[in-house]
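Fig. S4 source data, part A: sequence.
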Amino acid sequence: MSKYSNYWAIIIILLQTFFILMVNHYVYIEKSFYALERLLPYIDIIIAVLTVLIILSIKKHEENTKKITEVSLLKEHLSNIETLLTLLQSQKHEHTRHIQTLQAMIYLGEIEAAESYLEELVEEYWYLQDTIQVGHPALTALLNTKQQVGESKGIEFAFNVKCDLSRLHVNSWELCSILGNLIDNALEAVLPLKGKKRVSVEIKKENGYINFYVSNSGVTISEKNSTKIFNAGYTTKLSEARGYGLHLVKKLVSKYNGNIKVILKEKTTFIVSIPVKGDKGDKKAVLSSGASH
């Protein structure tokens, strides 16, 4: 049904148009009001039924589009986790190999060589000190993956988590859909820019809300479009899923009594605010990779 819902809607509209034209034919061409009087009750019923079917078809199409978008986002979330697990497994394998090499050097009495090897390892793997651990497994996977994606495209990706996320009662995949959409849009927006390309994410608690700041260098949205970007299906890109991405973000944020806004100044910043349960101060502040917002 989902595959052919558009065709059914078109067929129903054409049938409705046919019956309306038939009524006009009897009135203006045949001028047969007697025949029309006999058929009119049936025609009214048919048109009413067709109208209901059109409404149901449109509603079904919207539901199918939403499901397709949600499945796409869920697949992306699972892909993020898979990428992180692959990275961790690769690092574990590399660490095991290096430890075995050092062990062999020490066993053979090559102490200076072992020291030199260890210094090279420290220099090579210095970035692992910034491995993200934000106290939220799903966000850990998302942010690690997006950082790799950004760096692979020559985009500086920085993030800073300044609060405890344990009181943020948001479904993990929905939270990743919210942040993932905003980050993807930011990464895509800076790709065509000349000069320094930068995307930053900052998460902090302010006045009983967890605020998510997703910024990218440059004003990549016009003032005119800033009022339309949250509408279902609106997009300046070729991907229909992207057209429903920000609309889905807004719906998910509203589901948790939050709000979203965009600020256009020297850079483009999306701010998502979601209320948290309890406001007794953070038990810990989890710092992540890169500079702050």
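Fig. S4 source data, part B ends here. The longest helix spans residues 33-107.
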